[in-house]
Amino acid sequence: MRSEVWLPSLLAILGLAIQLCYVEERAELPDMCRPTLDSAYHDQWAVGIAFGRWEERVERLRHEPFFRAPLYPAFLAGVYRLFGHDRKAALRVQAVLGAITLLLLYRVTRSLFGHACAVVAQLLAIGYWPLTCFNGELLIPVLSIPLDLLVLDLFVRATRSRAVRRWTWVGIATGVSALARPNILVAIPAAAIWILRHGQMRQAARNIAALVCGTMLAITPVTIRNVVRGHDLVWIVWQDGVNFFIGNNPESDGVTAVVPGTRADWWGGYEDAVAWAERAEGRSLRPSKVSRYWWRRGLEFWRQQPKRAVMLMLRKFALLLGNSEISNNRQLMFKKRQSRILRLLPVSFSLLLALAVFGCCGNDRHCAPKPFASPNRADWNLPLWIVMPYAMSIVVFFVTARYRLPMTVTLMPLSAAGAVRAVRSVVSHPRVRLVRDAVVAGTVWSLSGLNPFQIGAAAVWRGYYDLGVDYVDVDLHRARECFDRSIRSNPNYAPAYKMRGYVEERSGDLASALLDYRRALALDGSFVDAAFRMGVVAQKLGRTTEARASYEYVLRLQPEHALALTNLADLSLRSGQCETACDLIRRALALQPDLLNARLGMACCHECRGELEMALSMYRETEQLPEARVRLIRLLVLMGRTREAERELERLERLFPDPERRVNPIMESMVFRR
Fold first, then answer.
1. For residues 132 and 342, is the Cβ–Cβ distance under 8 A?
2. CA separation, residue 437 to residues 368, 378, 589 (Å)
3. Whole-model pTM?
4. Within 198-282, where are the H helices?
5. Are 48 and 62 in contact (CB under 8 A)?
6. What domains are defined for the chain?
7. Closest alpha carbon to 646 in 657, 656, 633
8. How many CB atoms lie within 10 A of CB 247?
9. pLDDT (average), residues 560-564
10. pLDDT, tens digit, 9 for 90 and up, residues 524-553
């Protein structure tokens, strides 16, 4: 009995130590200070909840129904309230949560298969490197996995009791877990089917009612909040429609998490998805209506191209059961190669899947605890009642490693049972059935290890690209080295040329930057960002004709590009085309009313048209921009209001004490002395 206490605790401490070592290793990387995509979204949301510091785009989260599940950002906000906005402290707390996950895994596996299998399950979890990797990210799996294990544990215990309240607790746990990752809700109909198969109708009806009521009890507060704050009936989140279309359209590959044609950044993709739905419907839409629009688009794909849709679904099943860890935010295989800790962890998904198959083939023969060793015992397969519907909930949308991870950990009790069975089979004399089962498991292992879709082929060049992006705001020299390595690994990767050009632009090497932007655009003619930056650099070099051509090209690709409209207006102003500039600025402001550069451009238009007081007012509104302050000073001088100009100049010098940042051609044109 003592080993059943200290051994799982010791393994949990070992897992905690490994996770903390990984956190320390992560702290040396620049993305600790600069989270991206979903991690950045969670971080910004948590900061808003914890400290009330809402960024402009994130501010909408307070007044709209939830687009993403709110539990993890709320958890992260609680950590920030305790430790301040310290991401490293948050990852340490998540390491502790990872140790709790190991204890929950032990508890579930022991209740199904006994102490030996439970210890093996812990060892498998410790050795499974994606679990350690994702516990070190500001992402949902670190919270959803222990909650899903809690659901499974309560599910197992409810099946062994006649108490209705047990099913209420299963429902509550499922509802809470759904607030982190709604996929777990598929366990409700699966559990209802299990109840109907293993109980009398009246008792089954009571248990199902308790299960559903418990689930609704957990999610109803979020639904009420969505109705009250967002004025829209959204049960938990409304991202389901967008995600369904992402995984069910003619251009889908089953793994790419972007609506085709939308911007690749998080907020750009979000805004485009909403704007496209509203444009198609010809009116403003509530979030639930946006979701329904994308559901309809995805279902249209199934109706119009059923054969292609079925093949895509089969592809997603193959990806789900494949050994490759499919990246979403970061290149996972690159992270593993760069990490001393992750390289030491040997367990792969194909091994876990093969062991689970071997465990299912032997079910309760070799690893059932004594009280439940009867061949009629029906609960050995309870993890499958969650794993299988959960798998379906993934392939309906699209497949990534972090979506698969909760399913994988829930499968580990069966994997541990298979491992124990394998060891005991080697010790005993193999029988025909054991050999047959081993062949089946070996075949599964081999097939899972195949990589027909070349997942991970981009790990090196995409990995160096991502690392370079992280270094851009930290170390331009190291960023340049990363982009050089990315280009050497794949000379046809346009974003690497674009980002290397951006580094060169920031370093002052404008000629090289322009060359790299041209290369990026030559590789990808639809690369809007490369075309825009090419225009910016050409404008800095005084190549007005080339800059104008670049901005016009951007607008042909993306007519709603407000910055391109603004910069084109600036070129028009400099060439004396005041009315043309005004028209362009109005278009930009119609797209982005709060765009400071566009508002500055409108102030310049007012000045060009002789509307000086209006120009002064708008210069003051945009005084966050240094150029707006300089133009304000110059205009005050021209209007003879030199005292005001002197005061503004003093403010400018306090804000920008470095003369190189303060002096520019506009300042040099000023005609008064202090």
1. yes
2. 18, 20, 67
3. 0.83
4. 201-230, 240-247, 266-281
5. yes
6. 3-234+338-447 (no CATH), 458-559 (1.25.40.10)
7. 633
8. 23
9. 87
10. 988 889 999 999 999 888 898 899 899 999
